[in-house]
Task: inverse folding
C-alpha cells in the first residue's frame, strides 16, 4: 500500500510562520478576544479548552471560567492557553457556543469582520451571578443606556 505523506518544507520556519488569528485587548469590561481575520456565518472560530472537572471539584473553584457541559461536568477554562476565556458576554452576541461530545466550540453566529471582538451569550445564571450586579456593558446595553440617560459610567475591571 502506498501511503502518501505531505511534503513539508522545514528550512524556512520564519517565513511559513502562521499569522495569529486572535488578539487579546482591553475593553470597557476588561480583556476581550478580538479576531484578526474574518469569519463567515456558521464557521467554527475557536475551542473553549480546559480541564474537565466534576461537580465535586467545582465547589472549590471560582466559577467564572467554568463552562458547564453537563449537570455534573464542567470545563475549567482558567488556563492562559485557553484564549476563548477572553470572549466577553454580549446580549447581542456574534458567536455561539456548542457542545460536541465533551468539547465546546465557539461558532460564528453571523459574518464577523476582522478586528471585531468575539462575543457570546453567557446564559442567565452567569449573567445573574457576575454581570447583573455590576451592570452589563455590552454594545446593546450601552446603547440602551446612552439612549435614556445620555451618560455611560465606565467601570474598569480586570
Ligand atoms: Zn448586555
Result:
Amino acid at each position: 500500500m502506498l501511503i502518501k505523506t505531505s511534503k513539508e518544507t522545514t528550512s524556512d520556519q520564519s517565513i511559513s510562520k502562521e499569522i495569529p488569528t486572535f488578539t487579546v485587548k482591553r475593553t470597557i469590561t476588561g480583556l476581550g478576544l478580538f479576531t484578526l481575520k474574518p469569519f463567515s456565518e456558521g464557521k467554527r472560530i475557536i475551542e473553549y479548552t480546559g480541564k474537565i472537572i466534576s461537580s465535586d471539584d467545582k465547589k472549590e473553584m471560582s466559577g467564572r471560567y467554568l463552562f458547564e457541559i453537563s449537570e455534573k461536568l464542567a470545563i475549567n477554562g482558567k488556563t492562559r492557553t485557553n484564549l476563548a476565556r477572553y470572549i466577553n458576554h454580549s446580549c447581542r452576541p456574534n458567536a455561539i457556543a456548542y457542545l460536541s461530545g465533551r468539547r465546546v466550540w465557539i461558532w460564528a453566529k453571523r459574518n464577523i469582520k476582522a478586528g471585531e471582538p468575539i462575543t457570546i451569550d453567557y446564559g442567565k445564571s452567569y449573567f445573574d451571578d457576575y454581570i447583573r450586579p455590576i451592570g452589563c456593558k455590552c454594545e446593546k446595553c450601552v446603547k440602551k443606556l446612552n439612549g435614556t440617560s445620555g451618560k455611560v459610567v465606565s467601570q474598569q475591571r480586570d
